[in-house]
Amino acid sequence: MPIPNELVDILTEHFHKYPVTDPVCFNNDMNYLSYKSAVDKCYKLGKKNGFDFYFHMLRHTFVTQIIRKKIDIKTAQMLAKHSNINTTMDIYTNLDDTDLIGVTDNLYN
């Protein structure tokens, strides 16, 4: 998956320290967290703040932000590694009314 250039040095250093192939998750000290630890921390943080929060929600946020940045849906599908574009559009793209504001302003210019 493509990553922003700013993360290359951070991840290179991380993989020298932790040569693993698991998903990359860090604590505040930049030490490796297992996937299960990251999932548990997200869930507990949500509960502490009075709402349900699941680690998988970050995938939904990632895809939604791609679409909000006006990147085409096919690119979003490929980045999310969905085999079906309908999964990307119908399940992972979570737009709301604020995303519609101003959309038609320049439609006929």
Automatic annotation (TrEMBL):
- What SUPFAM superfamilies does its record include? DNA breaking-rejoining enzymes
Give the matching InterPro entries. DNA_brk_join_enz, Integrase-like_cat_sf, Integrase_catalytic
User: Ranges for the Tyr recombinase domain?
Assistant: 1-105
The UniProt keywords, alphabetically, are:
DNA recombination
Q: Which domain of life is it from?
A: Bacteria
Which residues span the membrane? Answer: none
Name by which UniProt lists this protein: Site-specific integrase
Q: Which organism is it from?
A: Massilimicrobiota timonensis
What does UniProt list as this organism's lineage?
A: Bacteria, Bacillati, Bacillota, Erysipelotrichia, Erysipelotrichales
